Amino acid sequence: MLNAGTPRQAGLDTDRLGALESLLTEGVRAEVFPGAVGLIVRAGVVGWRYAHGHAQVTPVQRPASVDTIYDLASLTKVIGALPVALALAERGILDADAPVHSILPEFSGGARGLVTFRHLLAHTSGLPSWRALYLRAPTREMVLEQICRTPLATDPGKVVEYSDLGILLLGFAMERLTGWRIDDLVRQYVTGPLGLTETMYTPPSELRGRCAATEAGHAYEREKVGDEGRGYPWQAEVLVGEVHDGNAHYAMDGVAPHAGLFSTAWEVAVATFQWLRPGGFLTEAAITEAISDQRAE
């Protein structure tokens, strides 16, 4: 676990910290972002925590604090889904080199038969980066159906393309293998062992006042899907404590392997620090494998 301390105890340069605080302050002033929380850990000591700006600006203003809870977006993949996959692999439950269709037979036909779980983890499956699956798939089951119908953009193992669809497919496979939903798996293999109490899916109402807002409705995705989304029942209210990602929000009740986790800066630091200190929820062998170049020679 991490310990709170002073910059001196963490061996941090206070002059450089001052410059970093000025950078965050300027970012808020220039409206690059409404608010920010920064945290630095060194040798297991949290030597610097800083908050500036707002956690929400409309329809009410709320200041950001070091304990603000943020939508982690795609950090969900590396804080949640990836450690779960590594834990299942180490326990012999998931074989990284097995074809995906061995667990999800509906993902078959053509080059799909060559896609392995290692491809999904390394973003080399050939699946495209993103699709607004929720436009045709209002349930988890239908999301899986839509992914299985999505043509591969490239042959497996040839191209690295960061893919939400690949991690979604991985999540469905892990759920089918274990009989547990991804939020239960994250609790079992990540947040529980690390003692994290504020890293979660779908924050309860009593924590919403500490959650940072994202945007009004899903303006970014509405623009991205264009005419295809005309007439869709988009949420119009400012999103606070509700996942911003459309596929997680509209089709998966806020619980998905690629997006949906919320957390504080402190607990993100606890989780990420495990990559530097094997034996928490990741063994040294798992870390070595995870950070190795997975591209085919």
Structural notes for this entry:
With 297 residues, the protein is an alpha+beta fold. Among the domains are: 1-52, no CATH class; 77-180 and 282-290, Beta-lactamase. It has helices at 14-29, 75-90, 117-122, 140-149, 164-178, 182-194, 219-225, 246-251, 265-273, 284-290; strands at residues 3-4, 35-42, 45-56, 62-63, 70-71, 200-201, 213-216, 238-240, 261-263. The strands form 3 sheets. Strands 1, 2, 3 and 4 form a 4-stranded mixed sheet that branches. A 3-stranded antiparallel sheet has the order 5-9-6. Strand 2 and strand 3 (45-56) form a beta hairpin. Helix 2 runs parallel beside helix 5 (164-178).
Q: Helical residue percent?
A: 25-40%
What are the secondary-structure elements, in order, as H or E? EHEEEEHHHHHEEHEHEHH
Tell me the fraction of residues in β-strands, as a range.
5-15%
Q: What is the tally of helical segments?
A: 10
CATH topology of one domain: Beta-lactamase
Keywords:
297 residues, alpha+beta, Beta-lactamase, 4-stranded mixed β-sheet, 3-stranded antiparallel β-sheet, 10 helices, 13% strand, globular
Write the layout of secondary structure elements.
Blueprint: E1 3-4, H1 14-29, E2 35-42, E3 45-56, E4 62-63, E5 70-71, H2 75-90, H3 117-122, H4 140-149, H5 164-178, H6 182-194, E6 200-201, E7 213-216, H7 219-225, E8 238-240, H8 246-251, E9 261-263, H9 265-273, H10 284-290
Parallel strand pairs: 1-3
Antiparallel strand pairs: 2-3, 3-4, 5-9, 6-9, 7-8
Helix pairs in contact: 2-5, 2-6
